[in-house]
Amino acid sequence: MELKELEVYNLSEKLSDTIWDIVIKWDYFARETIGKQLVRAADSIAANIAEGYGRYHYKENKNFCYFARGSLEETKTWLRKSIRRDLIDQSKHQELFDIIKKLPRLLNSYIKSIGTERRSEITGH
Questions:
Q1: pTM reported for the whole predicted model
Q2: CB–CB of 47/124 below 8 Å?
């Protein structure tokens, strides 16, 4: 299995791209304060999954997935601030949180699969 076939990776990419599309339209102050932090945190989810996937040892892969899980929590924090500060409308908020609801389960399932014989057979890792 290739990285681009992992649902957790694809969904985290969708989340960060959606966030980018929202933040890029904000005014300068909002982009420079909350926006940059939000985009970096969201981008970091998929980036850490990818970096871990590319590691040769399963323990390193898991470690980067733990970083991704932390970045997901950071993303949720910045999104909540964005909502409270009226930077994201209710429909976009719902769209983002629909994605965010799925990611922890997928990420935890992926973490559990890393290093198991079944995963080794599927991915060659």
A1: 0.88
A2: no
